[in-house]
Specification:
The complex is a heterotrimer of chains A (275), B (305) and C (321).
Chain A lengths: L1 H22 L1 H4 L37 H37 L1 H16 L2 H12 L3 H11 L2 H15 L2 H8 L4 H37 L11 H8 L8 H32 L1
Helix pairs in contact in A: 1-3, 1-11, 3-4, 3-6, 3-7, 3-9, 5-6, 7-9, 8-9, 9-10, 9-11, 10-11
Chain B lengths: L1 H28 L3 H6 L5 H10 L6 H13 L13 H36 L4 H15 L2 H15 L15 H27 L2 H8 L4 H39 L4 H10 L3 H29 L1 H5 L1
Helix pairs in contact in B: 1-12, 5-6, 5-8, 5-10, 6-8, 7-8, 7-10, 8-10, 9-10, 10-11, 10-12, 11-12
Chain C lengths: L4 E10 L3 E11 L4 E5 L6 H9 L6 E4 L2 E4 L2 E2 L5 H7 L4 E4 L13 H13 L3 H14 L5 H5 L8 H12 L6 E5 L7 H18 L2 E6 L2 H7 L2 E6 L2 E7 H6 L4 H8 L49 E5 L2 E4 L8
Parallel strand pairs in C: 3-9, 3-10, 7-8, 8-9
Antiparallel strand pairs in C: 1-2, 1-4, 1-5, 5-6, 10-11, 11-13, 12-13
Classes of the chains: A mainly alpha (275), B mainly alpha (305), C alpha/beta (321).
The structure holds iron/sulfur cluster.
């Protein structure tokens, strides 16, 4: 039991830390993340041979400070994670609640939409859209937001079905409450905890996907310091200086793991509540 | 049973059509295709010529119907980049992707099922916790980064395995492993959950009361019932894995349809992109259909109804 | 003649929190039907599972004597137990709907037992299964073998369970509420079947039930359990003629007409419920519901004899209760 709480707490700390780093990036970053210094390229991190305290995590192929880029990268990842979840959550929850609450034809349509969405190859379509419309942060967020709503819809649908027939909902209906009131005030609060778990999963997925798209060159445009982009740019040098991909890679891994740990903890909490 | 199959097939067909329309609309509506093809230095006349040559000046519905009709007869258009029929390109590339996907799935199953069973048998123990933790870590691993890391370790430092291309079968080992990694956590969780359920079922008590050996109880009586959802998810996972192979094929330079798609996207070769989207969607739909059918075959209760 | 099953001072704890069985002793003689009676939660099923070595994880079993024929079950390994189960001692359960594996045919599930214990081939095992299905009154046994559990009604499934239990000619059959989940008419059929089988095969039957109607109809010997303890044991005649423990008397005061107790219906109408007993509990477990309770009831109550072969656990003399 102890171990589980510890893991959840660890996840929370990681997420909160990255969030704060993202928010206060301008204050924390020791250098300008875009400033190139061609005389100081590929300087290794401080603890390696040839490293110095001027650039704690070294510099990249254009001589930009790696730590500063990493810090600003936190901003991009969190921004993408949160805004994507807000977009996809709105779409998915709306669809799921409607399908679950009304059932019948409405539900058929919702299920059909979910099936269609799942059949669309995610990465491929996201890549195509970005390639066509030109890469930008907004576009990546929009694209992912428009694609990642399936799990929200599935979970919202099933949980709504479960609460639909509960007494207080029936009571609210009998009391003549408006539909909007029932959905927003009675149904939504009762399924919110489940949706929160989905939100963590989707946030982790969105952050991973952004990194993947950027890595493939069709996500956040250079010179923005996306972690995925940093890995892509470091790829050519990784055989001689593996740290260029290890530093952003490990950071990405830790953040996503933190979000997952948090989500897992939430799920356990939910389960314990129900028992 | 027949009605069930029929309903599923009709649904699959409808989904298929919708996905095609959406993906078609996507490539056509999100910008001027002709201008993209022509490139930044083209004059307005060039663009007009391209538009005419590629039939992009016709109404969208017309374009779609033509394209779909041709696609149905196996003609997926011509690649702007390779100047070759798209269907030929795909025929050459698809086996690579399928090999990759299937070997990835095989590795994933071989790892995930025994570990899931083990975790379920020792539910709540340290071993169970450790296995689930590994699943959690696996979920957080970006596959492209894992690929690069493996390339550095195995390909370069140890020089054990080839790091790109598929001159020999060893070329598949690293990419298939990475691909498997993405499917293992889900399969493992599912196996574990199914086994935990099955092991506490009444029929397991009966099996014990019959004096059956532990291995027979777990592997025959429990696993058979736990396997049903795993089998169907495995098929669906394969669909996701094929979709995800675009990243891995790109990193390892495997000449599959994922790599082809990536190339085509960056070079605005949209007939190819369109075709790959279609193939992947079809594969996914086919696999989910297959999963439903397999479930029906595996579960005698479904088979009868 | 030595008993088929002898249990002395059987104790079962669940993860150190609940004492489910507290010192139960009983003997099942060859060819007799021994009924273990009590309300649900009194520990009767747990006792049976403990005898079979089928307790869930987290349950701890302990006993002074646990002997099946000449085998000391307390010293037997899990593997040794498995060799006995399904062969010399068999068990059937309350839930025929869920006790068969939905993924395998009746034939395969029945044959498996014979293959395991008799080393028989599939063909011989299936022949044996068909023979037993006929024996338990199932028509067209050959066809049934190929069917799956969901294709059978509850009564048929329980017959299949019985047939499966008999595959290896067991000496002892433990039946845990075998008819509780069935319709009243089917209940009567299954009970009649058990009686017939017992007579023909010379089975020793340990029948667990909460239905005194069934006890009256089936039992040679009766053990009444309450809150994990044996409160009274006697021959069926003696028990019905002269119930001694206040709990047994309460039960009998409201005996229903045989076969009319439905599942989940509380036994009798004694006010209150069976308490949950933690380890370290002392005294009579019935004292919260007993109308005769005395201060002495809070101390350990010994078993006393009402008549030869008739024991009860109460502070009161037999004449007073
Ligand atoms: S021991 Fe006391 S409480 Fe228990 S049954 Fe006898 S009189 Fe009642």
């Amino acid at each position: 039991m102890k171990l589980r709480h510890l893991a959840t707490a660890l996840g929370g700390v990681i997420v909160a830390f990255v969030l704060l780093v993202g928010i206060f990036a301008p204050l924390l970053a020791p250098h300008d993340p875009f400033a190139q210094d061609l005389m100081r390229r590929m300087v290794p991190p401080e603890w390696m041979e040839g490293g110095s305290t001027a650039n704690w995590l070294g510099t990249d192929q254009l001589g930009r400070d790696y730590l500063s880029r990493l810090i600003y990268g936190a901003r991009i990842s969190m921004l993408i994670g949160i805004l994507t979840v807000v977009t996809s959550g709105t779409i998915g929850i709306t669809l799921g609640v409607l399908g679950g609450f009304f059932g019948g034809r409405v539900d058929d349509v919702v299920m059909f939409a979910i099936t269609c969405r799942l059949s669309i190859p995610l990465i491929l379509v996201a890549l195509t859209v970005v390639a066509l419309l030109g890469s930008s942060l907004t576009l990546v967020i929009l694209t992912l937001g428009l694609l990642l709503w399936d799990r929200f819809a599935v979970v919202a649908r099933t949980t709504t079905m479960q609460v639909r027939n509960l007494d207080y909902i029936a009571a609210a209906r009998a009391a003549g409450a408006s539909l909007a009131h029932i959905l927003l005030r009675e149904v939504l609060p009762n399924i919110l905890s489940h949706l929160l778990v989905v939100a963590t999963l989707e946030m982790a997925l969105a952050i991973l996907l952004e990194a993947t798209l950027s890595f493939l060159g069709l996500g956040v445009p250079s010179p923005l310091p996306s972690w995925g982009l940093m890995i892509a740019e470091g790829k050519d040098y990784m055989f001689f200086s593996p740290w260029v991909i290890m530093v952003p890679g490990v950071t990405l891994f830790v953040l996503v793991m933190g979000i997952n740990l948090l989500g897992d903890g939430l799920r356990d909490l939910l389960r314990a509540e129900r028992v | 049973m027949l009605i069930f199959v029929f309903r599923r097939a009709v649904l699959a067909l409808l989904v298929c059509l919708t996905v095609l329309v959406v993906s078609f609309a996507l490539t056509r509506l999100s910008g001027d295709l002709a201008a993209s093809i022509a490139g930044p230095n083209a004059t307005a006349d060039d663009v007009a010529i391209i538009r005419k040559n590629y039939g992009l000046d016709r109404p969208l519905t017309q374009q779609f119907v033509d394209w779909a009709a041709a696609a149905a007869s196996g003609d997926l258009g011509r690649s702007y980049l390779y100047h070759a029929p798209v269907s030929g390109l795909i025929r050459v590339r698809l086996p690579v992707t399928l090999t990759l996907g299937l070997s990835g799935l095989a590795i994933a199953l071989v790892v995930a099922i025994p570990l899931g069973i083990l975790a379920a048998m020792r539910e709540g123990s340290a071993a169970d916790r450790a296995i689930m933790l590994v699943a959690l870590l696996g979920q957080a691993m970006p596959s492209f980064w894992l690929s690069l890391t493996l390339i550095i370790w195995f390909g370069l430092n140890l020089q054990w395995l080839p790091i790109s291309g598929i001159e020999s079968w060893q070329g598949y080992i690293l990419p298939a492993t990475v691909l498997a990694f993405s499917a293992i956590p889900a399969l493992m969780r599912l196996t574990r959950a199914g086994m935990v359920d099955a092991l506490s079922a009444d029929y397991i008590r009966t099996a014990r009361a019959k004096g059956l050996s532990r291995s027979k109880i777990v592997l025959k009586h429990a696993l058979r019932n736990a396997a049903m959802p795993v089998v169907s998810i495995a098929a669906v996972q394969l669909g996701f894995m094929l979709g995800g192979s675009i990243v891995i094929e790109t990193v390892f330079a495997l000449p599959g349809i994922g790599y082809l798609a990536w190339e085509s996207i960056s070079k605005n070769d949209f007939p190819v992109v369109q075709a790959v989207v279609m193939i992947l969607a079809l594969l996914y739909i086919g696999l989910t259909l297959l999963a439903d059918l397999m479930n029906a075959v595996l579960d005698p209760r479904l088979r009868a109804s | 003649m030595s008993p088929v099953l002898e249990v002395a001072n059987l104790r079962v704890d669940f993860s150190g929190r609940t004492a489910a069985v507290r010192g139960v002793s009983l003997k099942v003689q060859r060819g007799e039907t021994h009924c273990l009676v009590g309300e649900s939660g009194c520990g009767k099923s747990v006792s049976a599972l403990a005898v079979m070595g089928l307790l869930a994880r987290g349950a701890v079993r302990d006993a002074d004597v646990l002997r099946f024929q000449d085998t000391d079950l307390t010293r037997l390994s899990e593997r040794g137990m498995a060799r006995l189960r399904g062969d010399k001692m068999a068990m059937i359960f309350q839930e025929p709907m869920t006790s068969l594996n939905p993924a395998y045919t009746i034939g395969s599930q029945m044959a498996e037992v014979y293959e395991r214990h008799r080393g028989a081939g599939r063909r011989a095992a299936l022949d044996r299964a068909a023979e037993l299905l006929g024996r338990v009154g199932i028509t067209a046994p050959g066809m049934r073998l190929a069917q799956f559990p969901h294709q059978l009604s509850g009564g048929l499934r329980q017959r299949v369970m019985i047939a499966m239990a008999l595959m290896c000619d067991p000496e002892l059959l433990i039946a845990d509420e075998p008819t509780t989940a069935l319709d009243v008419t089917v209940q009567a059929q299954i009970l009649r079947l058990l009686q017939t089988l017992q007579r023909e095969l010379g089975l020793s039957l340990l029948l667990i039930t909460h239905d005194l109607g069934i006890v009256a109809r089936m039992a040679n010997q009766v053990s009444v359990m309450y809150a994990g303890e044996l409160v009274e044991s006697a021959t069926a005649e003696a028990l019905f003629a002269a119930p001694t423990h206040p709990y047994t008397r309460g039960l009998l005061a409201c005996i229903p007409i045989p076969g009319t107790v439905r599942r989940d219906e509380p036994l009798g109408s004694i006010p209150g419920t069976v308490p949950r007993i933690s380890p370290g509990f002392a005294g009579c477990g019935f004292r919260d519901r007993c109308t005769h309770a005395l201060p002495a009831c809070a101390q350990t109550v010994a078993l006393r004899s009402a008549a030869p072969g008739h024991a009860y656990r109460c502070v009161l003399p037999a004449e007073w209760t």
